[in-house]
Design goal:
Layout (H helix, E strand, L loop, with lengths): L2 E8 L3 H13 L2 E8 L2 H10 L4 E5 L7 H10 L6 E5 L4 H10 L3 E4 L6 H38 L3 E6 L4 E4 L1 H5 L5 H4 L10 H17 L3 E9 L2 E13 L5 E10 L1 H54 L3 H28 L7 E3 L1 H11 L1 H6 L2 E6 L7 E3 L1 H19 L6 E9 L5 E7 L7 H4 L19 H11 L3 E4 L8 E7 L16 E4 L2 E5 L3 H13 L3 E5 L2 H10 L4 E5 L7 H11 L7 E5 L5 H10 L3 E3 L4 H15 L7 E4 L3
Parallel strand pairs: 1-2, 1-3, 3-4, 4-5, 12-14, 19-20, 19-21, 21-22, 22-23
Antiparallel strand pairs: 6-7, 6-10, 8-9, 9-10, 11-13, 14-15, 15-17, 16-17, 18-24
Helix pairs in contact: 2-3, 9-10, 9-16, 11-13, 13-15, 17-18
């Protein structure tokens, strides 16, 4: 099979066209050809397909070779064009070559045709290859130019003297200039002196080592400081000699700032996890103490009520005080671990302040600390969590006490309250005459586990806990400057809770309900016994069972006006008891009270929030038991056989 060749023959004589066909075929070409003899026919042929070569007769009745050549040029085609002629003068041949013909051949010397065709095909392919290379080069240049100018990274070239010989727009924008304004300048003219020294030293290292280097560079220009990640490589000439550097610099200022912020968040998360772990540990310890503490507190209180001997009564009172102190410690542990919004009730901040200081009166007196109250006369009643506010004051007073131990001379603790202008917020301040707080430490005071106390004296959790409580109330806590010697902490709290109005309940005489049947469900016999005894003293009929299964059996046998149930029990726990009662007799749900030492458990919290059943947290005081029992009984207005109602003033 021959070499494929597509030939457009411009010839008016069929015989001459066939002669050309035979000559080319004998030379080994596999022809595809068409003969045309008019301009229209030639246009149509050029439109219809792509040709490798055009061979045209010079003279024809209605067309000629030069006209055919003009058609090819008009269409912008780069085709080998050979003119054939029976007789042609030298001047005409020269004109044809100048017009763009590649060769001319006499018809009586066709031996020159094949070499001419081969030569022109080679040259045409060479021209096409060069054109493709030029187009590719131009395309690559345009791509490189687009990258050079389109990237947000600075791209630059410097000579050995450090002068910029090329820089893109992104690089020039660092200096607030155009590329033309930067070219010819060095870094000493563009950056601060310190930045320029660092950058030029890096350039020197690259040109000296002859290796690509990556640096983090600080560049200060136009009053702003940026951090760049710069990749610098030696710039070599065609002989391999280093003539400068080529560099790409990416502004990573925001990334570095984000890394710093991320590190801070990681540290905060780490501290939070430490706090959560500590909280879980404390919660576990507290839960294990709740049941025996409830028994101790209850039995001690009952003992104090029952004894007639003054000495024994005082001894029982001391047991009660010690048990209550243990309960406060447990509650503090639980408050540290608890993640819940404050439980708001009407609170007098002056009363909270006095009670908190009273709790620490003995250690303050031992260390000769004079306590001064500067409490405003008319402070509005707040909606707040009194227990949590008590924690705040105790913590601030304890910190002040600890600080004043470090100084000699008069030690004075001042607790002050007041109202912010407008009356919507109240404030409380705790001031001491200790060594004070440096500005360097002030920024870290509320970090969890940060403490300035000696090892074993402080945990670093107190102020962090205080801040969480205050912010949970929608308030603010911080150090007050200019309040005299020592340190002063100020707490500001809103009088109203979010979306709340401070309402005063109408006064009424409470009525005590007595003589009802109560079922106590608790797997701890000690707790069940304490509850039964205190409720029996109030005139109620009380039965106790150890789990929910037995409780259901008792409920099926008889009528009970109130059910006090623990939440965590074997066989059938409190929630399961609740859902079973809901299916069997939903009216009893309004008569239920739960007891738990596990208020930290997400499952327990969700259950209590979903059902809305009143809950008494362990350890509890007997007064708390009586109060919640009366609240539920009075709310339900229970009518039972033998129920007695008595005015509380009786």
């Amino acid at each position: 099979m021959g070499v494929p060749l597509r030939v457009l023959i411009v010839e008016d004589r069929e015989d001459d066209a066939l002669l050309l066909q035979r000559v080319l075929q004998r030379a080994g070409y596999d022809l595809t050809f068409e003969r045309v003899d008019t301009a229209d026919a030639m246009h149509a042929a050029l439109e219809a397909r792509t040709w490798d070569i055009v061979i045209a007769d010079y003279a024809m009745p209605e067309f000629n070779g030069l006209a055919a050549l003009a058609v090819v040029k008009e269409r912008g085609l780069d085709l080998p064009f050979i003119i054939l002629s029976g007789s042609i003068g030298e001047d005409i041949a020269v004109a044809a070559m100048k017009g763009g013909a590649h060769d001319y051949i006499m018809k009586n010397n066709l031996t020159r045709l094949i070499p001419a065709v081969e030569r022109e095909l080679r040259e045409a392919e060479g021209r096409r290859a060069r054109k493709r290379a030029e187009e590719s080069l131009q395309e690559n240049y345009q791509i490189m130019q687009a990258v050079f100018e389109g990237t947000s990274d600075a791209i630059f070239v410097k000579d050995l003297q450090g002068r910029y010989v090329m820089i893109n727009s992104a690089g020039a924008r660092v200096f607030g200039k155009t590329p033309g304004d930067v070219i010819g300048k060095d870094d000493t003219e563009l950056f601060s002196a310190e930045s320029a020294r660092q950058i030029m030293e890096h350039d020197r290292q690259v040109t000296t080592s002859g290796k690509t280097q990556i640096y983090e560079e600080i560049g200060s220009a136009l009053g702003e400081t940026h951090t760049f990640l710069s990749t610098k490589a030696p710039h070599r000439d065609h002989q391999g000699s280093i003539i400068g550097i080529i560099g790409i610099a990416r502004d990573i200022t925001e990334r570095k700032q984000a890394e710093v912020q991320l590190q801070r968040q990681r540290e905060a998360l780490y501290q939070s996890e430490k706090l959560a772990t500590m909280g879980q540990l404390l919660a576990g310890v507290a839960h294990e103490l709740n049941n025996p503490l409830s028994v101790v507190m209850g039995q001690a209180a009952l003992l104090r009520q029952s004894v007639r001997n003054k000495s024994q009564a005082e001894r029982a009172g001391k047991i009660v005080q010690a048990a209550e102190r243990c309960a406060r410690i447990v509650n503090n542990f639980l408050a540290l671990a608890r993640q819940r919004p404050p439980e708001r009730h009407p609170v007098q901040v002056n009363q909270v302040a006095r009670e908190a200081v009273e709790l620490l009166a003995y250690p303050l007196r031992v260390d000769s600390v004079e306590v001064e109250f500067q409490l405003a006369a008319e402070v509005p009643v707040m909606r707040a969590d009194a227990h949590q506010l008590h924690q705040i004051v105790v913590n601030l007073v304890s910190n002040a006490h600890q600080a004043m131990r470090e100084v000699e001379g008069p030690r004075r603790l001042t607790v002050a309250t007041g109202v912010v202008v407008g009356g919507e917020r109240v404030w409380l301040e705790v001031r001491d005459t200790g060594p004070g707080i440096s500005t360097e430490l002030e920024g870290r005071l509320f970090e969890p586990f940060f403490t300035t106390k000696p090892p074993g004296v402080g945990t670093g959790l107190g102020l962090s806990l205080c801040q969480g409580i205050v912010e949970g109330h929608g308030g603010w806590i911080g150090v007050v400057r200019g309040a005299g010697p020592g340190a002063a902490f100020r707490v500001e709290l809103p009088v109203k809770g979010p979306g709340e109005e401070v309402a005063v309940a109408p006064a009424r005489t409470p009525v005590l309900v007595r003589g009802v049947r109560i079922l106590v469900v608790d797997d701890e016999p000690g707790i069940a016994g304490v509850l039964a005894e205190v409720l029996q003293l109030d005139g109620h009929v009380v039965e106790t069972v150890g789990n929910g299964e037995v409780a259901l059996a008792r409920l099926a046998e008889g009528k009970y006006d109130l059910i006090l149930s623990d939440i965590r029990m074997p066989e059938l726990d409190g929630p399961s008891l609740y859902w079973t009662i809901e299916r069997r007799d939903p009216r009893l749900l309004q008569r239920m009270i739960f007891l738990t030492g596990d208020t930290l458990s997400p499952g327990t919290r969700q259950f209590l929030e979903k059902t809305g059943v009143p809950c008494l947290a362990k350890p509890f005081a007997l007064s708390d038991v009586r109060e919640i029992v009366q609240q539920v009984l009075q709310a339900q207005e229970i009518e039972v056989s033998g129920t007695q109602a008595a005015d509380v003033t009786d």
